[in-house]
UniProtKB/TrEMBL annotation:
Keyword Lipid metabolism annotated: no
Entry keyword set: Oxidoreductase
Alphabetized GO MF terms: oxidoreductase activity
Organism: Drosophila montana
One cellular component (GO) term of this entry: cytoplasm
Annotated InterPro entries: ADH-rel, NAD(P)-bd_dom_sf, Sc_DH/Rdtase_CS, SDR_fam
Family according to the record: Belongs to the short-chain dehydrogenases/reductases (SDR) family.
Protein name (Swiss-Prot/TrEMBL): Alcohol dehydrogenase-related 31 kDa protein
Superkingdom per UniProt: Eukaryota
Amino acid sequence: TVNTNLTGMMNTCATVLPYMDKKQLGKGGIIVNVTSVVGLDPSPVFCAYSASKFGVIGFTRSLSDPLYYSQNGVAVMAVCCGPTKLFVDRELSAFLSYGQSFADRLRTAPCQSTTVCAKNIVKAIECGKNG
């Protein structure tokens, strides 16, 4: 979970930044890190997932600091998506077994389609600012 959600995202940012950085090869731009509302508040059920998403938000906020943006012209933002139908239809495993009943109840929670989520990400890109 941490390797995919956090380390993979950090490695991707480190790889693309030189190509975007105005002081190197690029013309500026925007990096959008897709994360989750589970990274905004602790999740006692999905502990590792929550920790990885907290990490994405912290990394994004750090990389979007004016210290970097004023130098490289690369805006960085995080989009914190809520639950999608695709997510809740998966086999959800709680970090500890006694949280599994909560994970199972999540299947009936209101959620958005992946199409709505994607449209909102595009809107955030169009309307959003660095940070």
